[in-house]
Amino acid sequence: MTSAPREAEARVGPIGALLSRLLFLVICLPGPVLLVVAVTLDPPRSSSDFWGLLVGGVLATAIGVGFGVFGWRVVGRSRRDARRLSAAGVAATAEVLAVANHLAGENPELELHLRISGPGFATFEADTIRATDPALVPGAVLAAVVDPADRLFAII
């Protein structure tokens, strides 16, 4: 059984991956630091200071570590997708079947419905979102790379 097509995460180079992972590690640190300060502060502060630092540390740890782990995983998935497409990807074509406006965020974008075909895999349809471009009209043909094993694709 073949899996549903999935567009590869945006490519992140090695320097970008290193800097992103360092940033996500830094995001994880303030919560545990507050917890350590709350527990080891000498001389002991008032009860309200202790509980404030403790609750702040727990909340900052939960939010920071959650966000940091999520970001770390997104960077890892991006690098993994890029490696898979460079190792097992085959050249393909993506024909634009339909174009619709996509109004999420500040910049206007287009939602494209594509038919992707190439050697070594069955033709499939997928959706993607791209920056507004007058050349993106129904019938336009775009270059793509597809991993035939699980239909991971990237528009190039």
Low-confidence stretches: none
C-alpha termini separation: 27 Å
Continuous helix count: 3
Strand content: 25-35%
Q: H/E order of the elements?
A: EHHHEEEEE
Describe the structure.
- The chain has three helices and six strands; from the N terminus they run E-H-H-H-E-E-E-E-E.
- The two termini are 27 Å apart.
- Helix 1 runs antiparallel to helix 3.
- A hairpin with a 4-residue loop joins strand 5 and strand 6.
- It has a six-stranded mixed beta sheet with strand order 1-6-5-2-3-4.
- It has 156 residues and is α+β, with helices and mostly antiparallel strands.
Looking at this protein, list some descriptive labels.
3 helices, alpha+beta, 6 strands, single chain, 156 residues, 28% strand
Please outline the helices and strands.
Layout: E1 6-7, H1 14-28, H2 30-40, H3 47-88, E2 90-102, E3 109-117, E4 124-131, E5 141-147, E6 152-155
Parallel strand pairs: 1-6
Antiparallel strand pairs: 2-3, 2-5, 3-4, 5-6
Helix pairs in contact: 1-3, 2-3
Briefly summarize what is shown.
With 156 residues, this protein is an alpha+beta fold. It contains three helices and six strands.
